[in-house]
Structures are given as C-alpha cells and as structure tokens.
Amino acid sequence: MPYVVLARRGRPQQFSSVVGQEHVTKTIQNAISSGRIAHAYLFTGPRGVGKTTIARIFAKAVNCKFKKDSEPCNECNSCVEISAGRSIDIIEIDAASNRGIDEIRELRENVKFAPVSAEYKVYIIDEVHMLTIEAFNALLKTLEEPPPHVIFILATTEAHKIPATILSRCQRFDFRILNRGEIIDRLKELLASDNLPVNEDALSLIAENADGALRDAESILDQMLSFSNGDLKTDEVSRFLGLGSYQLLDSLVDNVIKCDSAKSLESINSLADHGADLPQCLKKLVSYFRDLMIYKINPDLIDVSETRSQRLMELSKIASVDRLMKTVKILTQTESDIKQLGYERLNFELAIIRLCRLRDESIPLDKVLAKLQEIESKVYNTSSGIPVAVVAEPENAYSDATVGSVDIIDAKSDSIEAKELDPLSSTWADLLKGIKGKCPPALHAVLKEAQLISVDDSTLMVDFDPRFAWHREQLKDSESKKQIEAYISEVMGKSIKVVLRSNDESSKVDIPTSQKEMRTDAMLDDSVKLVLDIFNGRIIDVKR
After folding, report:
1. pLDDT digits (tens, 9 = 90+) for 70-107
2. Using an 8 Å Cβ cutoff, are 303 and 179 in contact?
C-alpha cells in the first residue's frame, strides 16, 4: 500500500477534530442542526489552517443521513465516498487553473442538474480570488440564487482580491493562524498514532517555523521523520531548516547581547560551515529578538517552550527594551538590504558588528541626579566668572547619531548669586524685571542688550557693546529715552535720568570679549569639561 503523507493521513474527518477554528466549526454545526444552511460560504485565512478540510467535513455533514450533533458519521455510503474523493456530487474546483469565463459558464449549466445520490451538490472553489473579473461577473447571478440543492463554498487566502459583489452574496468566515501550542499538540497526536518518540524542543522549533500553518508543520515533521529515521533531534531539525545548529544560533544571540564582536563573527563562521542559510538565520534572529523584546515588556504574551522561556528570562536581564528595539530595526533593515543588494554574508556580518557596538544608553535616574548635583555644587562654588556650560536636552536620547548640544551662559545668571559677583549687573537685572510688563517689548529688547556702568540717586549711565550699534541709536531717540526714564522712575520710586556713555569714554574700558576668547575660556573650565564628558556634548554658542 502506497505511503500517505501526514498532512493527508492526519486530515480531520469531523468538526471536533479540527484544530484552532472553533468559531467556524461551532457556527456551521449550529446552522446544520437548525436547518439554517446558506447557499454560499466564503472561507478566508492563511494557508494550511483548515479551510478545505472544514469545507469537506461540511459537505459530508449536510449529506449524512446518520449525523449526530451535526457531525458526519463517516460510515454511511455518502460519507465514505466523500472522504475517498469519489462522490460526483462534491465538486472541487481549482480556480488557479480554471479561472476563465468558459469554465464558469460550464459550471452554471451543471448546477441545474440535481445531485445523483446526495441531498446537496456542493461546489468547493479553492483559491477563488484567481478568477478573472469576467468569470466573477458570470458567477454573480448563480451565486446569489442557485438551485435549492446547490451549496457554494469559496476558499481563498486573499479575500481583498474578491469583488464586493461576490462578498456580499456569501457568509464569510475568517480562519485564524494557529499558535505554537496547538500545532505541537497536533504533531504529538500524529507521532503517538505511529508510536514514535516525542522531542518537545524539536517540535517547538518545527512549530515556530510553520508560521501558524498546521499543514506546513505536518510537512516539515514528515520530512524530518524520514531524515532522522523516526528519532527527532533538535540540532537535526535546525540544520534541516537551514539554521545550522540550534546551539550555534543561540550562542550568536548570546554573544550579540554581550557585545562580543569577535565571538559573534565566530558564530556566523560556524553557521556557514554547517551549511546554514544565512538569510534564514537572519529571519530567525529577528524572531528571537522580537520575542526577547516582548518578553521583557510582558512575558505572558510570548508563546514558547519552557526551555526557550527560561533562556529569554536570562537574556532579558542584560539588554534594555530600547536596545532590543534598535536591534530588531537593524536586522529587518539588513533583510531588506540583502534582498536588494545581495552580499548575504557581508551584510549579515556588518549587521552583527553594529549590534555588538550598541550600548544601553539609558542611565538610571539616581545616577543622573547625583551627577547633576555634583555639577551644581561645582557651579555654585565658581568664583572666577568664567562662563559655565549648560547642556541642552537632546532631541532623541536613544539615537545613535544624536550628540547633546551645549549652550554657554554667563556665570552671573539668575541661577547664581549675581549680587556677590557684580552688584551693577544685579541692579540692572532687577530693573529689567520690574519694567518688563510695563514697557513695550521693543524697548525692553533694546535695554536687555545694555550694560549698567554707574548709578546714583538721580542718574543711570548705560553703554552697549559695539555689536549693538542699532540699539544705541534707539536709546538716543528722545521719545524712546523719555519712555524708558518714565518706566525706570516708576520702578525706583523717584525721578531718574538715563545717560548713554559717550564713545570716547567707552573706548577707555574693555567691555566686549571676543567670541573666540570666551570659547577658549569655556573649554578650559573644569565644569564645562565635566558636562561635555557626561553628555557627550559640544559647545555650539557662547554668551555673556
């Protein structure tokens, strides 16, 4: 007797045997038991999840005369013929090879004839999205009002390609992908039926590579049983799937997490020596790091074996979520680069080196605060008047290319005890604050660039840096000067005259300091150096 592959031999013959599609089987069974059988159904979902299988069980159930709880008996002539594929009343059509209008016209003519031996004539049209637009149009009327003895079951993996006019005439059922546990349980049943030993890790690896498709998992298992002569081993499954050794792949992940470039490249070399398919290994790495990222956030969302779960728990303690997010992004980008450019091994190695150079950039908050307090104490103890660096917050604290920018402000700022350093500057700052809400913004902006030279009971003498010649001219304007004197007098509570120091007097005092000199002074200051080192910053501006 010829060998029958597991995918066919293990095909369920009753609704209760179908794995993972209870929402579909329950609805159909209720419809059969209540007599609410529709004329057209659409089964849509990924490959290998049971669409055609349930269609055949449905065909048996509606035609079985001895069904119990809407389950076919699988013993009557109708059930036996349908299970064997001999029933002439159950017509399976492959729309990929019968997609034209002529085939649909022939179908329309045949539906008129009554079934030969069954109660219903059932048409199962697989991959129905492959039909041409003309074929769909020819099917419309028949699909909407077929003869009472005809049931249409349309199956597809791409429901979005089916015209809305067809969709509206069918009851739609969406099939879901199967999780790892459901696939493993089914594979165990198949092994038990053949009295073969079970290797949990090997079955888990098969299930993970099946991408939720039970048929794919059964096909892999069938091949592996032939390869290993019935004795499944994890390493053999790994090599068969193009992943090299399972231990080598796990070692590569471990070395990447620990940022060991040399050992990571050795792992890649070993994988290549074992004949591993590097793009397939890259895909597996993406899945591995994705699981690790999700596990670190919420372990309950990860469906893996106990061994893998323990391994994820160990690795999750080493890397941060942000680093894992970067890792997945780099690996997926590398997948795209390999597809577009080739150079599989080179791109793989470049990606691994980049991953090993990634560092967790998140610093514990208590350490950040301690550093800031240390800097603050040094700033407050500064008496030299040298400009102090203040770090601007980076746009993205976790970006590889981001460099913290640094502004330079005068040590006589509001955050320092300015009165101890320069009483005139302090007096002028207080006056500017007092008149800020009273004088026009334009005048206040002019005064902000002025420097207080001297003050007595009735007069304030101010001056401007040569760079602010326009501001000096504004203060020379008699009308503007009167307004400024009025605001300052109001704040000080007595009549005050504002005097602009002459250019001759100004030249005697070295007021301005060149940008180059201030930058040099800032770079030599220990506090500035400390800030730049901590935040990997650079000086972008220096201000008095």
Report:
1. 999 999 999 999 999 899 999 999 998 988 999 999 99
2. yes
Compare 433 and 403 and report the one with higher pLDDT.
433
Distances in whole angstroms, Cα of residue 28 to Cα of each of 16, 35, 121, 188, 345? 12, 10, 17, 27, 51
Whose tokens are 């992940």? That residue is 253
**Whole-number Cα distances in Å, 402 to 100, 120, 291, 361:** 58, 69, 28, 11
pLDDT at 8 over 50: yes
Residue 330 belongs to what domain range?
246-357
Q: How far apart are CA 413 and CA 416, in angstroms?
A: 6
Q: Quick one: which of 373, 360, 300, 365 has its CA closest to 325?
A: 360
Q: Distance (Å, rounded) from C-alpha 533 to C-alpha 378? A: 15
Please tell me the predicted confidence (pLDDT) of residue 212: 87
Instruction: Please name the residues in contact with 30: beta carbons below 8 A apart, sequence gap of 6 or more.
Output: 36, 70
Instruction: Work out whether the CA dihedral 326, 329, 333, 335 comes out positive or negative.
Output: positive
104 & 25 share domain: yes
In this structure, is residue 140 part of a structural domain? yes
Side-chain half-sphere exposure of 131, counting CA atoms within 13 A: 28
Residues paired with 172 in a beta bridge: 42
Give yes or no for a contact between 359 and 259, defined as CB atoms under 8 angstroms apart. yes
Using DSSP, how many helices (H) and how many strands (E) does the chain show?
Answer: 26, 11
Span 44-56, pLDDT tens digits:
999 999 999 999 9
Domain boundary among 357, 382, 415: 357
CATH of the domain at 223: 1.10.8.60
Cα gap 525→532, rounded to integer Å: 11
Q: Is residue 1 part of a domain?
A: no
Instruction: Looking at 436-468, list the stretches that DSSP marks H as alpha helix, in order from N- to C-terminal side.
Output: 441-448
